[in-house]
Amino acid sequence: MVKPNLSPKENMENQELGRKTISYEEYNEKMKSLKTLSDVTNFFKDLLAPTIQSMLEAEMDNHLGYLKNDPAGNMSGNSRNGYYDKKVKTTSADTIKVSIPRDRNGTFEPVVVRKYETIESSIEERIVSMYAKGMTTRDIHSHMREIYGVDISADMVSSITDKIIPLIKEWQNRPLSNIFPIVYLDAMHFKVRDSGKIVSKAAYIILGINAEGMKEILGIWIGENEGAKYWLGILNEIKHRGVSDILIACIDGLTGFPEAIHEVFPNTEIQRCIVHQIRNTVKYVSHKDKKSFCSDLKNIYSAPTEEAGLLALEQMRKKWVKYDIYLKSWEMNWTQLSTFFAYPEEIRKIIYTTNIIEGLNRQFRKITKTTSIFPHDDSLLKLLWLAQNDITKKWTMPIRNWGIVMGQFAIMFPNRITLN
User: Fold this and answer.
1) Residue in 216, 184, 226, 220 with CA at minimum distance from that of residue 205
2) How many CA atoms does the CB half-sphere of 401 hold within 13 Å?
3) Does residue 344 sit in helix, strand or coil?
4) Residue 2: predicted pLDDT
5) In the 8-state DSSP scheme, what is residue 239?
6) What is residue 328's DSSP assignment?
7) What are the residues facing 84 on neighbouring strands?
8) In a 3-state reduction of DSSP, which class is residue 208?
9) In the sheet that 215-223 helps form, which strands lie side by side, from edge to edge?
10) Do 362 and 368 meet the contact criterion of CB atoms below 8 Å apart?
11) Do residues 189 and 199 lie in contact, with contact meaning Cβ atoms separated by under 8 Å?
12) Which residues pair with 96 in a beta bridge?
């Protein structure tokens, strides 16, 4: 901190507070002696604590309405009441010690170093960013010490990232659009500690495409292993948050899933993922038959009409009798598998598979793969929320040909979709 003139009393007070104050002449002389970048860095490190101290004093002056030792403070109703020491971790120095002024009424709220703040906000931002990229607490501890010279314990990382929990709750309870033409519902599974045991938990995810054709994550919920009953509760929740209609819901083959959706959104059409169906069908097909089998299978889902698709299925069952047991599931699930046949090509491409949400899940996996077991549900939710926060920043363009898609929807659902 640089001051042109200091009284003997001020110098004594500064020494008591551990401040380093220099005159402008000393400052300029010191600047001339700096030769390397390291000299500059160390010089400004030395000035950091006294500069913050000076800012705190100025804040107190402003709070009280008069300068220190000013007679105007007599009988003002509030006055200075000493100091309390605080250590603050910074990016430019390991740890600095400052003395926080107090007032007798206890109403002073410093801004430069806030109450309960023990770490510079820019460091917190770096820690949250590293956590969002999937770095473990041990990695963050090592990185912060090596790069910034700051020791950050695992408990401190957890404490810092806990500050985003109110933001997560706000996001999770935000109002939603009244209609989503298409939604994708899926779940990911993780190992989490619960009551001293390691259990499998599901992260339930709903990805919607809104009326403007923009992708939007409606929410992320942590619950027990994936089940239709839990999905029913989630669907009721998004309905209470404003969603009154969904045209098409794209799902995997979870038992009871269509019934749960229709319980909350009775007019929603269900499209079961064709890609999941194909995987389940060819799983036990012999390697020597797989290429020919898959070629015939393609005739089913690439058929121009539902009737042609059914005909291709019948022909395939006659040709591949030894795999008929795996083809029966196509017949059993045909109602949900064949929904996309009623739509033009632009819509078919969007709904016949849940690849769009599986792509999102792959990005989540890249972030979470460094943590094999999460200590609790909140730690998993924090990481997934931070990850989606980064991922969705890139979602700046609508789905391709969305104008054509909405035009088709408006024709097919005239009472549910209106174009402005």
Assistant:
1) 220
2) 11
3) coil
4) 44
5) H
6) H
7) 100
8) strand
9) 215-223, 197-209, 179-194, 245-251, 269-272
10) no
11) no
12) 88
Contact between residue 219 and residue 207 where contact means Cβ atoms under 8 Å apart: no
Take residue 147 and report the two structure tokens written for it: 């790069």
pTM of the predicted model as reported, rounded to 2 decimal places: 0.69
> Tokens 């600047």 identify what position?
31
24 burial via Cβ count (<10 Å: 0-12, 13-18, 19+): exposed
User: What is the amino acid identity at position 298?
Assistant: K
Residue 277 tokens read as 């169906």
In angstroms, the Cα distances linking 99 to 15, 22, 122, 221, 298 are 12, 19, 21, 44, 74
What per-residue confidence (pLDDT) applies to 388? 93
Q: Which pLDDT does position 293 carry in this prediction?
A: 95
Q: Give the DSSP letter of residue 366.
A: H
Distance in angstroms (rounded) separating the CA atoms of residues 245 and 6: 72
| Contact by Cβ (8 Å): 266, 235 | no
8 Å CB contact between 226 and 204 = yes
As a whole number of angstroms, the distance between CA 329 and CA 94 comes to: 64
Helices (H), 173-305: 228-240, 257-264, 274-282, 287-301
* CA–CA gap between residue 58 and residue 62 (Å, rounded): 6
Amino acid at 402: W
The whole-angstrom separation of Cα 254 and Cα 231 is: 10
**Per the structure block, which two tokens stand in for 293?**
């089998």
Calculate the dihedral angle through the C-alpha atoms of 403, 409, 410, 411, rounding to the nearest 10 degrees.
Answer: 120
| Cα Rg of the chain (Å, integer) | 31
Write the DSSP string, 394-407.
Answer: T--SPPTTHHHHHH
Q: How far apart are CA 54 and CA 60, in angstroms?
A: 10
Looking up tokens 């995987």, which residue turns up? Answer: 279
Residue 240 has which token pair?
Answer: 């209470």
Look at residue 126 and give its three-state secondary structure: helix
Helices (H) and strands (E) in the chain, counts: 18, 7
Tokens read off for 307: 């009737």
**pLDDT at residue 190, rounded to an integer:** 94
Mean pLDDT per block of 10 residues along the chain (420 residues) reads: 46 46 64 68 64 76 84 80 77 66 85 59 63 72 65 70 84 95 95 90 95 96 86 96 96 87 96 92 92 94 94 95 92 93 94 92 91 88 90 93 94 88
| Contact of 243 with 230, CB cutoff 8 Å | no
* CA dist., res. 212 & res. 219, Å (int): 19
